[in-house]
Design goal:
This protein folds into two domains: 216 residues, Alpha-Beta Complex (2-enoyl-CoA Hydratase, Chain A, domain 1); 48 residues, Lyase 2-enoyl-coa Hydratase, Chain  A, domain 2, CATH 1.10.12. 52% of the residues lie in helices and 13% in strands. The two termini are 17 Å apart. Keywords: Acetylation, Fatty acid metabolism, Isomerase, Lipid metabolism, Peroxisome.
Length: 283
Amino acid sequence: MTEEWRSLKLEGPDETGVVRLLLNRPARSNALDSHLFEELPLAIAQLDASSSVRVIILAGSGKNFCSGIDLSTLARFDEEGSTSKSTRNDRHDGARTSLLNLHRVKRLQAAFTSLEDCRKPVIAAIHGACIGGGVDLITACDLRYCSSDSFFSVKEVDLAIVADLGTLQRLPLLVGHGHAMDLALTGRRLNASEAKAIGLVNDVFQSKDVMVEQVNALARNIAAKSPLAVIGTKRVLVKSRDLSVMDGLDYVATWNSGMLVSNDLKEAIQAQMEKRQPTFSKL
């Protein structure tokens, strides 16, 4: 994990296994550019594979968490379409252009889905603006916390596009269909207190500094638990969203059939009996 990223910055992991992954274009309020979409899945894959990492905090550098997708990235869709080899000789072939756009959108979607697919918990720590693609990003995280100055907007409708990187699929699971429809159709600004009230964020803190402190404490608390249990809990919860209750029960039974023989379980029971904190091995 020593790569030099152009759109990201890595801090840690610390001695507890907590790492901070920062969106790092502060001069542009961390607008999401092509480098971000290339680098995010690579960074997440490395953190997921590292035995030293147990929890990931996703945050933003500078005054805002994320101002949404960089408009130059959107503009490049049309530019690339008009100059690519596949369309130079078929400039007016809508089918070829559509197929090319489909491939591009799926690639961008995969970058954000890497957060959900990551075995380790990903906590979004939000301050300031979280707009458009920023909302797509945080809804793919496992937990979301923000400072009181935060605001949110599903802004895509104001750019004459349909939000296509996960908001329309994941946001209703967090806030319900009605709230999601309201936010997506109006593009209105949602403040921090309302975001908590409807379930978009888990909690709101009075300042960025307090939020950072509290989210770090939460991450360390999770990191101190059995990594096998943490990974399994995330996996079962994510998987169960698409399963019936009975199928979900079958899934967790299958999962635990392998985990009930772990050394972590023995250590947890022994620590309880000895009234001490358990110590769990790295993955």
